[in-house]
Amino acid sequence: xxxxxxxxxxxxxxxxxxxxxxxxxxxxxxxxxxxxxxxxxxxxxxxxxxxxxxxxxxxxxxxxxxxxxxxxxxxxxxxxxxxxxxxxxxxxxxxxxxxxxxxxxxxxxxxxxxxxxxxxxxxxxxxxxxxxxxxxxxxxxxxxxxxxxxxxxxxxxxxxxxxxxxxxxxxxxxxxxxxxxxxxxxxxxxxxxxxxxxxxxxxxxxxxxxxxxxxxxxxxxxxxxxxxxxxxxxxxxxxxxxxxxxxxxxxxxxxxxxxxxxxxxxxxxxxxxxxxxxxxxxxxxxxxxxxxxxxxxxxxxxxxxxxxxxxxxxxxxxxxxxxxxxxxxxxxxxxxxxxxxxxxxxxxxxxxxxxxxxxxxxxxxxxxxxxx
Amino acid sequence: xxxxxxxxxxxxxxxxxxxxxxxxxxxxxxxxxxxxxxxxxxxxxxxxxxxxxxxxxxxxxxxxxxxxxxxxxxxxxxxxxxxxxxxxxxxxxxxxxxxxxxxxxxxxxxxxxxxxxxxxxxxxxxxxxxxxxxxxxxxxxxxxxxxxxxxxxxxxxxxxxxxxxxxxxxxxxxxxxxxxxxxxxxxxxxxxxxxxxxxxxxxxxxxxxxxxxxxxxxxxxxxxxxxxxxxxxxxxxxxxxxxxxxxxxxxxxxxxx
Amino acid sequence: xxxxxxxxxxxxxxxxxxxxxxxxxxxxxxxxxxxxxxxxxxxxxxxxxxxxxxxxxxxxxxxxxxxxxxxxxxxxxxxxxxxxxxxxxxxxxxxxxxxxxxxxxxxxxxxxxxxxxxxxxxxxxxxxxxxxxxxxxxxxxxxxxxxxxxxxxxxxxxxxxxxxxxxxxxxxxxxxxxxxxxxxxxxxxxxxxxxxxxxxxxxxxxxxxxxxxxxxxxxxxxxxxxxxxxxxxxxxxxxxxxxxxxxxxxxxxxxxxxxxxxxxxxxxxxxxxxxxxxxxxxxxxxxxxxxxxx
Amino acid sequence: xxxxxxxxxxxxxxxxxxxxxxxxxxxxxxxxxxxxxxxxxxxxxxxxxxxxxxxxxxxxxxxxxxxxxxxxxxxxxxxxxxxxxxxxxxxxxxxxxxxxxxxxxxxxxxxxxxxxxxxxxxxxxxxxxxxxxxxxxxxxxxxxxxxxxxxxxxxxxxxxxxxxxxxxxxxxxxxxxxxxxxxxxxxxxxxxxxxxxxxxxxxxxxxxxxxxxxxxxxxxxxxxxxxxxxxxxxxxxxxxxxxxxxxxxxxxxxxxxxxxxxxxxxxxxxxxxxxxxxxxxxxxxxxxxxxxxxx
Lengths: 372, 257, 294, 295
Hints:
Order of helices and strands of chain D: HHHHHEEHHHHHHH
Number of helices of chain D: 12
Largest sheet of chain D: 2 strands, antiparallel
Distance between the termini of chain D: 44 Å
Radius of gyration of chain D: 19 Å
Strand content of chain D: under 5%
Largest interface: C-D, 51 and 48 residues
Oligomer: heterotetramer
Distance between the termini of chain A: 65 Å
Number of strands of chain D: 2
CATH architecture of the largest domain in chain A: 3-Layer(aba) Sandwich
Number of domains of chain A: 2
Largest sheet of chain A: 7 strands, mixed
CATH class of the largest domain in chain A: Alpha Beta
Helix content of chain A: 40-55%
Number of strands of chain A: 14
Radius of gyration of chain A: 22 Å
Shape of chain A: elongated
Structural class of chain D: mainly alpha
CATH topology of the largest domain in chain A: Rossmann fold
């Protein structure tokens, strides 16, 4: 008897704590993220951001009265794991929508999304190949925007006109390197040599020694994650004294703390480390928030808005196609990092900052305003 | 005499093989004549098994030559030597212990079609016919060696004397003219010996040439037509068994007196 | 030329780490004929023991390192005692041992990945991580320590095998187990000792890597397989061979980068390895292993 | 849900082919290979590239995949199998590393880490197989074909020779068996079948990249064989059904994502150790001899 009472009691309490969900089942969406592997730092942010958004949405009454539930899947930077996860999400959970991350995994699941009419929102991958794909939206600019900015800045303003490049051996690293070479060349610079390295490698001395021998006035790092910290440290250790540069990808805790990365020239996408969101994130997860936490928070919120819109139009039913049409018709979403407008290529544009990494923070020198 | 006129089926000439610093076989020469039983004897460490291993291609030689019907077989690999008609048993038998008696013998029978992957899939009829023939042959061989009651038992389940018989049966099935037997009688009791001796004789009646290593001098005298006495890797004497066993110098070396 | 010297120096440093691994693995393989891939687990454990000693228990660096080596040696011994020896008592074939070893490697690596998270953890080595410039070559003090450790490990092992009673017992078993048994050597004990010594020799490799680029749960697999390549190239059963094989492999990897794009590093090494087993299967100086010996 | 079960069954079919073919080496020849994932990958890439660049479609792709797989295997088997099994372990590891490096670094051909998207679904006599449950039949058909090939190989004089080589190589040589040739032949057949599985996978998933064919995948395939029982033809199939179900079962337990993958690996590893200690013959156990019953 007492147990029954206490069960009743707790359920009443629970019902009181959460706003009553008026109708039906929760809305399930997927999130395919790098929860393990060399990019696990990104995964912490991405999952945290999505989780916080879902909690806030549910605390505010859910989406049209239905609870939002995010199902997290790990791709560990492996596209085929992403494909398996996507199949599960589509076939078992019947999600209308999924968050994705990284270039290769996102590209791999996109055909499945099209086939099953599931909307994908990528907040992390930046390969140029992610643009203009059906059912795939990127609330992050493709990398060529950022690389273009830094290439021009390095060549024209910093007068660093000869570069050597170290490139992560994957879709993102290679794509960014290719773009850098083009844009840097257009800005009057010249890439003298490049060397590829494994994303999960730890010893890059041989490659760096080779690049050092080629001279140049700049070492451009087309890689991401903790990989960059090791590259930077080992470059300094080998007596490479020329400036180093990268894009916002490099801004993970491992790099910002590393000795070698001090003074690295980089782009940054707008992220306010002192914002209310960042504080709340730190309280909740006991670790500093980063740009990608905001990205996935925003992506989840964008879905909630688009879904609400879609359900209004259809009179309650929710489908991937509906969400897609809602995104296409709304186009402009308010997010905690300002207005986000989806471009014709299904990507976003953002202000891009350039600056120098000093004492674990980016000292911004210049902001290039977003232009569609 | 008539012995000299008969040309040898196999002749070993100037064979030498060393391990590290030890000269196991040194300038060893002898002939094996067809249709006869040649006994290879000598004290322990005389190099008898090394000679076997070199003849059958398991060991290389430093020098020398081995002619099989006039053809050089030194330097060939073991399976090539077998295909040219020289088969052997091992001191430690080396039966396929987890396979049946029949399978052990079938592995001796020639089944080129069944062992060829292409014909296995493309000429199933030929393979089936060949397998049937091989089984028939295997059963005959088992009959010959008195093992037909044991066909479907695992080799490891046989008693030791029967395992010995099986090791001979499996090479007999190969239908090779020259059979090398490494201590066919060792470890056998009197009764089993009485079973094996006539069998070895019968091999010759079936047209085989036998070269055997044996320690049992009585058996050698009883079985062999020719005897080769090996000591420290060299041939000390060769001839009829009676001559060799009667030579006191050889007896002294043999028994290490 | 500067580049060549730099690559050669880096090759020497990497080679020293491979050498430590290869010496331990080669000693064990040469003596027991176990294809002990779980040696990779020892490598990994040593690194994490040292890391935990320093970062979690707050021990001084030297104490943490010595403690980690001792613990790794104990682990090696326990693997033989509780896994390989029971298997051998049951008459297991070598493939069975290898599979158990592979399973163990998988278990240890992933346990470590759960306990310590999969991301690399770097130890604090203070000034040891500072760069040293020797002519045109840049290294860190830690790299010099690595080379010195490998040299000390090699010389120590050679002296142990040559002059100590136990070392001679290991050599006896290595050259012929049957012979060793007939002169009254207890094979099981010698195996245990070999595992302890082999593990102790390779443990510093794991620790040095943890100091240099960080401990990583899965690095042991790569190292142990490279060690086996080095041992085969050097010649199975030969301790100088293991050292030479490891240095050769590392030089190949690093100097290869000089002319060939670096992403083909591993391809170069294994290409050469395949050529090697055709041309000289017994390695620089050692015996060839047949799957069956007559 | 049915689609999900269909997916599981397709993967069982593909992995059953891999496990059956690897068992020709591990179980029937006593050769341990660490390169089966690389062979699987070669099949997938060859087939995908043939379909995408030459437009030969599924069937042409599969034939070429099997050929390339056998060839790659021969390149390693010919030098290393002349010496000993232990060399082959290391050499096959080498093949695994080199093949993966080719997948990742020969970007002009393989598109590197980004992989190859848009691989067409198979077309069987004008019928495009694009539903998972349809693919179940295709995968099952190939698994049955593989089983039949393995049965024919092992229940024949050839299989007898394999077993003889595994149990006593010296005796096999003495009986005139060309041990090296037989080993190379079986390595090539095993690889051709493994590559075929790769082809099935590529046309099923429609996207491939190098990370699906890494070393741990080789170890996983070996586990399927060993746990099911390497001495029986059906052993690997049982192993495949059970081990592929483990990740799905784990999903029902509330294990955090970051821990689930290593937990899976620990389970595989622990099973290997336990089986070696307690039941080395695998789940299905041992038949001491099979070829006896061949007709």
